[in-house]
Predict the structure.
Amino acid sequence: MIELQQVHRRYAMSGQTVHALAGVDLRIGAGEFVAITGPSGSGKSSLLNILGCLDRPSSGRYLIEGRDVASFDDEAGSDMRNRRIGFVFQSFHLLPRLSVLENVLLPLRFHREPPADAQTHAHALLERVGLADRRDHRPNELSGGQMQRAAIARALLMRPALLLADEPTGNLDSKSAADVLALIDEVHAGGQTVVLVTHDHDVAARAPRRVRLRDGRIEHDSTLHAPAH
Ligand code: ADP
Ligand code: MG
């Protein structure tokens, strides 16, 4: 499904260079559920942004579904982001002026040919995440857990092959976090590929595979059963 080969990401910051990713090799197969862990600043978000085609490697290769993202023009990149990838963020990123239902339907605005069943699917997703009775509310009328469940419904609208979540439970109380994690488990059980970034070991423990970053490198990959050198 995805493959990184010696991926580096450097940021230029007021004359200094930050080496956020320093040679990452990683393959993730279709249907896997992988947790990316590591201390703050270890490169987790940088990695996820590259996986989600929100950003590109400074050097190295990223192949998604066999295609090199370096070959994508703007349209191919946004097509990949909009149709094949769902994103969930720690801070939800819901639009405050839109209702819950309108937020879930937001991805349609980026499509010339929206799927015919999008409305029905949005309602089914709101049912599934337990927000059917909140669909006409604004995000600020929801709890954090409800906001994140709305954000997950939105991420799933286009039936993405790949769901990416950056600290999705970071702002939630433990009960809400458990609900959100149960939903993510369900997404994985349904066959979608899931990559979850978290610094919480209990959250990471739910994923069958855990990859730990340190200083922009993979320090440990639980499927390889050996620390990186
Ligand atoms: P994590 O998500 O694990 O906390 P990040 O990927 O956000 O780590 O950051 C890795 C390193 O890159 C940090 O040193 C961070 O300060 C730096 N960094 C991240 N994004 C940027 C950016 N847009 N500009 C400059 N430096 C950045
Ligand atoms: Mg981060």
